[in-house]
Amino acid sequence: MPIYEYQCENCGNTKEMSHGISEKRFPKCPECGKKMKRIISRNSFQLKGSGWYKTDYAKKPASSEGGGKNAGTPAKAKTSD
Question: What's the CA gap between 12 and 15, in Å, rounded?
Answer without folding.
Answer: 10
